[in-house]
Design brief:
single chain; mainly alpha; three-stranded antiparallel beta sheet; 2 domains
Length: 364
């Protein structure tokens, strides 16, 4: 009875939130009739969400306006590394969070839409017919916020597993953090690697599977903290992870794998000619789906969560705001599950692709 009551209560709350949101929207459907402050508030919330999803050249914690109306940023600068006719290294504090032009060795650079362009002393940006900047973009090797956390998670995993391995040398029973990690490692080995790759070949892929699982999981969890770290909602990061899976699959594949792609057995010869291009295309679609799945799920989760939090400032009522907060809290708990689920799916599919690459006739 309790579970049924809880489900009904949650359904009612969700319906009430939806009703308040729809009523709010219907009452003010015409944007031109909105008061200027509300239009500005909605624009500010949208801009904040967009900014939250982006990588940055500084580690910003928060910002506020002082009594004089001046915006004060609290955070730490990061090193900017550019190649523009030579190496240019300077602190991102020269940009003052994108508000000023940075002068380095007689050259001027400006941050525009989270990218660095070469400009004149005034910071002028020129545009083409489609309003795209035409200024020169130097090669950018900067240490951004996402890069910092990639390094930090890599170091954390290195010392965590090194200590765990050291403890196993003296005692077969796990100690400390090893008690938490051992069941997860055994699960990845016994329920992901061996069933999908096979007992004969799984060992050479275990290091990668463990690395990618814990990396994606820890990074996703950090994305749910107020630190504003959203590494896996960066398409470049998910692209590199998927590319590694693709390269490992391609370069460790045996002749049976290539035979099933270019000249599949048991299929009429005419159909083999038709199916071969489809199979080749499938080789690239698989890592592409890995890339998009991880990127899209994490990005969508952040957008929905931040949007629901933003509703509290739009409702400004004792009904709408608490309901938005409660829904955001419930969604945050769900995002904890999604963080682990996306790491599991990426690891599982990678193991599945590795298994297809090393499968032998005797395995059938």
């Amino acid at each position: 009875m309790r579970s049924k009551f809880s489900i009904k209560s949650i359904t009612f709350l969700l319906f009430l939130v939806s009703f308040v949101a729809v009523a709010q929207h219907n009452g003010q459907s015409d944007a031109k009739n909105l008061p200027k402050e509300e239009k500005d508030l909605k624009t500010s919330i949208k801009e904040y969400i967009d900014h939250h999803l982006l990588d940055s050249y500084d580690f910003g914690l928060f910002s506020y306006k002082n009594d004089e109306g001046k915006k004060i940023h609290i955070g730490a600068p990061l090193p900017v590394i550019l190649w523009d006719g030579g190496l240019k290294v300077f602190s991102s504090s020269k940009f003052h969070y994108g508000e000023t032009v940075a002068e380095v060795d007689g050259s001027y650079y400006k941050m525009y839409h989270n990218k660095i362009y070469k400009t004149d002393a005034t910071g002028a940006i020129s545009y083409d017919a489609e309003h795209h900047p035409t200024n020169t973009k130097p090669l950018d090797f900067s240490i951004t916020k996402n890069v910092v956390f990639i390094f930090l998670v890599a170091l954390l995993m290195f010392f965590m597993f090194k200590k765990m391995a050291k403890n196993y040398k003296n005692n077969p029973l796990p100690k400390g953090v090893g008690r938490f990690l051992e069941p997860i490692i055994l699960y990845i080995r016994d329920d992901i690697a061996i069933p999908n790759i096979g007992a004969k070949h799984y060992k050479k892929y275990m290091s990668y599977l463990l690395t990618v699982f814990f990396f994606v999981w820890i990074i996703n969890l950090l994305g749910l903290t107020p630190l504003g770290v959203n590494v896996t909602n960066n398409i470049a990061v998910t692209f590199v992870l998927s590319l590694i899976t693709f390269l490992l699959t391609t370069f460790t594949a045996n002749k049976n794998y290539w035979g099933h792609i270019f000249w599949m057995p048991g299929v009429p010869k005419l159909m083999r000619i038709v199916l071969a291009p489809i199979e080749v295309l499938g080789m690239f679609i698989k890592p592409f789906s890995l890339m998009i799945r991880l990127y899209a799920n994490i990005t969508a989760g952040h957008i929905v969560l931040m949007s629901i939090i933003g509703l509290m400032f739009i409702f400004k009522s004792w009904i709408g705001s608490p309901l938005s907060f409660g829904l955001a809290f419930a969604l945050s708990l769900l995002e904890l599950l999604v963080a682990a689920l996306q790491a599991y799916i990426f690891t599982m599919l990678s193991a599945l692709y590795f298994g297809s690459a090393v499968e032998e006739h005797d395995d059938h």
